[in-house]
Automatic annotation (TrEMBL):
Signal sequence coordinates: none
Organism the protein comes from: Mycena venus
Cofactor(s) listed: heme
Upper lineage: Eukaryota, Fungi, Dikarya, Basidiomycota, Agaricomycotina
Family under the similarity heading: Belongs to the cytochrome P450 family.
Protein name as annotated: Cytochrome P450
Pathways per UniProt: Secondary metabolite biosynthesis
């Protein structure tokens, strides 16, 4: 059979013409009038560039590089501009701007904010320290033999278990038991219908599954779709069917945990030390109608937002302090003079200058969230950094880039130098502490900031009080794969009892 090759020229030409037409129309259409801004070529007429930088796991780095190449205001998609000037940050994170996420922040904040105060965070620290004691016990029994010297392992899986147990304890009043079992396996109901799950706290059928796996599968659905306009959703749902199902499994898991929590009688809610208990107490006190389904939605966000970020911040702190032995010695000297034993009293460590400088420097250099959180310009439009922008334009200032501004942080912004936060005598340096945007800023900033900082202080203090930490390969970079959160994929360390 002879292939009718010549016949393909017609369709091929058709495709080329259609594509060129599409590109030209998209380029000329430009509803927000941002064609004049420089940026990567394909971003001028398509979402290809932002999708590509997103799924390669290098978004913050690539946008940072694009700013270095094209300038302080760049177009990163047909409807979005990125600003590298830190002075723009407070402007677009002010009350005027709305977020692109569909959740009703106002409502959520009103109910949840009082459950995330600095005092609540402080009261939670004894639980963090008992989880740390458990983790350190595990490390010592698993790895540390009687002989002196370092033992070597990848800390990422362990810190993952710690972060899940810790958020489980905070939300439901008890850890998931992951450090104890050395595994992130949880049970999920076989039937994923939420009303069904909520009705039957005890006798639903279950099967075991890895929580880390479910959470990351869910993100493989949410993240790429978050980069695209809404009309892509039905297509995404078809292509990423398994990933979308992971989201349902995760919801059923959280709903089931909540049902279990609600079925245990807590005689005095006013003494409840978990988020669910405090929430119930508060809605009872204010005679608010309590709808378990809406609480499930909040808990899903809190469980994910509160574990992945803290987990990666702690891994980064271990990495940088292992790499910078000098900073580690200084931290240990400070801990030795303020902690009487390995049991942590939070008041002893809360304000330690060196500990806080190490923590701030980790959050600056690593920044678990690195992207410019997208905000929408209010109607009818306004001028930002000298540029007139139409209402509806999406804008963002990448946190990663703000945290690397030499103007803000002085010399060597790419290096881990906790001393930039300190003066010679340990007092605070002339840095603008407001410039640290790891938790973002403004009305939609992170609600878990106090909790995260308190936990991280306890975790870092517990580890470095007990161990000397080194990197297995001292020169190795920290391998990061970025989704919404920048995640460390592996971090092999050596521990030696001090
Ligand atoms: C080092 C740790 C953490 C970092 C770096 C971090 C960072 C952030 C950032 C940058 C945002 C976005 C704010 C915005 O859109 O303007 C955010 C939102 C949020 N964070 Fe955190 N966070 C951390 C820990 C936590 C913890 C421990 C919790 C709770 C237990 C938490 C709960 C939340 C919630 C509920 C939101 C709002 C999400 C939404 O409205 O969709 N975060 N966080
Ligand atoms: C760490 O950063 C915060 C701002 O996020 C600041 O208030 C605090 O003083 C800093 N700590 C040190 C030791 O510089």
């Amino acid at each position: 059979m002879v292939l009718p090759v010549f016949n393909l020229w017609g369709p091929a030409a058709g495709v080329v013409v259609t594509c060129s037409f599409y590109v030209l129309v998209s380029y000329l259409y430009d509803p927000y009038g941002i064609r004049k801004y420089p940026g990567p070529f394909s971003a001028k007429f398509s979402y290809a560039w932002i999708l590509w930088v997103g799924i390669t796991g290098r978004r913050s780095q690539r946008i940072h590089d694009a700013h270095n190449k094209y300038g302080p205001i760049i177009r990163i998609s047909p409807c979005e501009l990125s600003f590298s000037d830190p002075a723009v940050y407070p402007v677009i994170h002010s009350n005027l701007f709305t977020t692109l996420s569909k959740t009703d922040h106002g409502q959520k904040r009103r109910l949840l904010h009082p459950l995330f105060t600095a005092q609540v965070a402080r009261e939670f620290t004894p639980r963090t320290s008992s989880l740390m004691a458990q983790l350190i016990d595990k490390w010592e029994s698993h790895y540390i033999s009687s002989e002196a010297g370092f033992i070597w392992f990848d800390c990422v899986p362990w810190i993952t278990l710690l972060a899940f147990d810790s958020i489980g304890e905070f939300i439901f009043g008890e850890p998931f038991g992951m450090i104890e079992s050395g595994s992130d396996s949880v049970t999920v109901p076989t039937d994923l219908q939420l009303p069904f799950v909520m009705d039957k706290a005890t006798d639903v059928e279950h099967y075991p599954i890895s929580l880390a796996h479910i959470v990351s599968m869910r993100e493989r659905y949410n993240y790429p779709l978050g980069l695209l306009p809404k009309w892509w959703r039905p297509i995404g749902l078809r292509v990423l069917r398994k990933e979308a199902q992971a989201a349902e499994i995760f919801s059923a898991f959280v709903a089931h945990r909540l049902a279990e929590r609600l079925s245990t009688t807590v005689p005095q809610l006013e003494n409840a030390h978990d988020l669910v208990g405090r929430f119930l107490h508060k809605s009872q006190a204010q005679s608010e109608e309590f709808r378990p389904e809406s609480l499930v939605a909040e808990l899903i966000t809190i469980l994910v937002a509160g574990s992945d970020t803290t987990r990666n911040a702690l891994i980064a702190a271990l990495y940088y302090l292992a790499q910078s032995q000098n900073a580690q010695r200084n931290l240990q000297a400070e801990l030795d003079s303020h902690m009487t034993s390995c049991t942590i009293s939070y008041t002893d460590i809360e304000v330690l200058p060196c500990l806080n400088a190490c923590l701030n420097e980790t959050l600056r250099l690593y920044s678990p969230v690195g992207i410019g959180l997208p905000r929408t310009v209010p109607h009818p439009g306004m001028s930002i950094s000298g540029a007139w922008l139409a209402g509806g334009t999406t804008v963002g200032v990448p946190i990663y880039t703000v945290h690397r501004s030499a103007a803000l942080w002085g010399g060597h912004p790419e290096e881990f130098r906790p001393e930039r936060w300190l003066q010679g005598d340990g007092a605070q340096a002339g840095l603008d502490a407001d410039a640290l945007k790891a938790f973002s800023d403004g009305p939609m900033r992170c609600i878990g900031k106090h909790l995260a900082l308190a936990q991280l202080r306890v975790m870092i203090a517990a580890i470095f009080k007990r161990f000397d930490v080194v990197l297995e390969v001292p020169e190795s970079p920290l391998h990061i794969e970025e989704w919404f959160v920048r995640k460390a994929t592996e971090c092999r360390i050596g521990l030696r009892r001090r």
